[in-house]
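New to this. Look over this protein:
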Amino acid sequence: MNICVFCSAANLDERYTAPAAEFAELMGKGGHTLVWGGSDVGLMKLMADGVQAHGGRLIGVSVEFLAAKARKNADEMVITTDLAARKAELLARADAIVIMVGGIGTLDEATEILELKKHGLHAKPVVLLNTAGFYDGIKEQLRRMEDEGFLPVPLTELVLFAEDGVSALAYMEEFTGLQ
């Protein structure tokens, strides 16, 4: 399965890196392909290292202004002209999407993926990996949006909140039928 992972390019605390490393190992051992932003720094590097070290493949999708940070030994690397093209390429190559901890770029990717799914422009499973409660606030806000009628579809049809990589991967495999 091609799993798109949106995550930070920052170097982060172990409370975020340890669960990411565990998820990367699960992906690699499961023979999955990481589809990611292509950067060879921070959490993106950790994910790519872990997937590759455990037998998985890497498809990077970088953008021209970040091409210097792109991983050199990815199985495939695509360089897009801008962030919009990058997000479209990431979605096109994915069977499932996981949103890990990240900053404004990750938040932008997450909201666009959820908006596209809300409108039926893709039906891929989306998992928000809530490591160390990082996304508790967003989870609460999305529930409020649902409760107050701002979401035209049930929240459970848009995104699954997972507390660990094992449950995230199990959900994606069940949803897609791909293992």
Notes: Helices lie at 14-29, 42-53, 83-93, 104-118, 136-147, 155-158, 165-176. Strands lie at 2-6, 33-36, 57-63, 76-80, 96-99, 126-129, 160-162. The first strand starts at residue 2 and ends at 6. Residues 19 and 164 are 7 Å apart (CA to CA).
